[in-house]
Amino acid sequence: MSKTNHAADARKKDAAEDLFLEQMSHQREVDAQQGEDDGTLAFAPNIDFDKFKPSRSSLAARKRKNILMTALIGVAFLVALIPLISVLWTTLVNGARRLNWDFLSHNMTNVIGGMPTASGGHGGVLHAIIGTLEITLGAMVISIPIGIMCAVFLTEYSKGGRLASVIRVLVDVMSGIPSIVAGLFAFSMFTIIGGPGTLNGFEGSVALSLLMIPTVVKTTEEMLRIVPNDLREASLALGVTKQRTITKIILRTSMSGIISGCILAIARVIGETAPLLMTAGFIVSTNFNLFSGEMTTLPVYVYQEYSKYKAHCPEGASASCVASIPMERAWSAALVLIIIVLILNIIGRLAARALSVKSK
Question: What residues does the ABC transmembrane type-1 domain cover (predicted)?
Answer without folding.
Answer: 129-348
